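Note to self: user wants both folds in one dump. Writing first protein now.
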Amino acid sequence: MSKTNFSVQEMELLVNLVEKYKHFLNCKITNAVFNKKKEEAWDSLTTDFNAASLYERLAAMGALIEPLPCRFDCDYVYETAVSSGTQGGESAVVQVDESIFTPDDHPLDETLPVKQDLQKTRETLCSTPLTTAPQIRKSKRKPNDSVKTAEALAEAANARKVAVERDYEQIAQFREEEHRATMTYQKREHFLKMKVLKAKLEHYNLLNKKIKFELEKEN
């Protein structure tokens, strides 16, 4: 007899489940009603076996995921501190004087006349000579070394952050594909195990029938 891949706990569980449903599995009546009950017994046995051995599959999955690298968390915290310029401390907040956004409380002078000499105002505006605004010249001084260093650090931190995020996406995709492949393999493996077990039980029933028939024949 070839060795199966069942663990000791699974074998004990399987024996108990077979014992539980043996009045249907070992039934000799072959009509449609009892055949249906036998199929239902097989389904119940499979469901109970899967539910009881679920924790073993979860433990195996955890053993596969645990060795994966987790160094990216520390790098992400470091790069976040560098890009914000705080080195992990409190961020610098600029205090703004909100009084500049509020209107003056001075009331309007209601004693001024409403009508004014619009023509005079127009002539005054037209007679005012236009002056050329002074041009702002671009400074030819190069940024000092401290500015260059800060910009280089910000660019390097941003690049590292993008690389870390890309690595996170690749790891998540790898875990998803690995989980899908593991579940597919375990499902197929369990199906084959149950098929072998069913064949063995059918063979066991046939042997019992043969032995019983030979005993009755001798008597």
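First done. Writing the second protein, which came from a different request thread.
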Amino acid sequence: MKNRSRAISNSMEQNSKTQRTWRYTWEAQSHSPNLRLFLFDSKTNPKIHCKSLNVSTIVGKSQLLVTWINEEDEEAASKEEIVSLLVPIPRVLLDTESPVNFKALDDHIEVRLVLLLPVDHPLVSDFNLVTDSREKSAPLVMGYDLKTLSLMGGVHFYCRSCSNRLTKKELLDFSEMPSINWRESADNWFGTCCCSFGGISEKMVVKYTNSYTCSSGLCLLSATTVLLSKDDLVECILSEKGGTEVEFESSLALSCDVGVVEPGSRISEGNAESHESGGENVCGQVDESKTRCIDKASLPGCCVHDSPDSNESVQLEEKKLTLDKKFLLDGFLEDVFMAKASNVSKNVEWIEFACPECSSPLGAYPSGVGSNGKPIDGGVRLFKCYISTSSTTGESSDVFRKYTLERMFTNQLVECSKEELSFHVLVKDLTTKSPLFNIVILNPNTFSSTGLCSSQDEPGSALELSAIVKVLFSDCNSSVVKKIDEEVYILKGQGEELIELITNASKFLPSSCSYLQGALVSSMHL
């Protein structure tokens, strides 16, 4: 026994290079008291090469010791070579009295451990005392961002890539951009009658558009973006579609001069032509055949005939709605990071906005199309994953340090599937509307950690499980996904970056576990 222990110790010192080629990936499911390990490299067939496989736990060091006799060829078979791997065990409540189950498969070694409690149990969370790890896995909460920014006194925004300051002066006024359709919400509360309570709902809608219109000094926050006026940004000159630099003019958003905006309207692509240029021609004259505005008094049976003054103030206010405010009401200026099909209009084009110093992508701004191809509201939507509130990225003072492109997309994807009960999502290019890739959510309640096996000389460190979403990924040429529950739109640059992230994440599993029904099995951090 002593000779075997000495041999194992010697082999661990001699095979440190071999250990570096072995990857471990831990996985656990929500509400399940089990922990599974995938251990693999690119060359070894454990079923053939790993003889006398043995797995044991070193509880005091939170490590798993995996040993076997290596037999790669006939010559090596005559010489006994013991290979040992040390795998760190995540911070979990392990049932040490339960046996360790393991088996050698064609391309990996699989180990199963029994837990006293599932990894997402509140008691397990209390054991996680590592501040940095807890902070990294903390959920992305917009309420926290709003509160923290408001308490900072004054905030500058910086490019995360080059630390270039983006804002001219400190921002003091922060507000949350509502993520729901206020016109529908107002109608649900007060009804759609054109007088009395119906008038109240329309007044709410008008006040909403005035309150959440982009203006200098105001910072509007959504789950993924920061909306700033171009006047608050350094060296910010918005360009037309053709590249001509123009100063934003409020007159570009032409107002509707006749009638009232139709309550409850939501433009679909089928009648999008009727909303082009806000129902107006190039010269700003209202096209009666195309305008979305109607005179309620002309509607038969409308109670405005009985109460001519009940809705007069609402009509006067709604006459002032400019094109950018109409687009805001119809949901076309909502969160651009990942837009649903109902929030995309062919009359609004999103143009990417880059850092003036390093040209790294920062966000996007809306522009009209055709003859109205100019910036719509003079605002720029900066993605939280590309900016920081500190000149040094990652500092504790950086409010957006937890935001990454991957986490933002995953959170929006899961939220989308909750709202619509959708799990099959087609992702399209926001600009060209062409398909980019398909995503199928397999399991949004998975926890995982991955890395390379360490040598004996290296001190063990606490390993933490991170929340991930298991997904099926396929390109748009694949026929795997035949049913689409939801279409979402993102900018092409972010789409290409996500494709690379998802493809690389699939390498954290052995090849036999990387495909399901012809699609790539991967994961995304939540």
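Dump finished. Worth passing along: Confidence is low (pLDDT under 50) at residues 1-8, 242-310.
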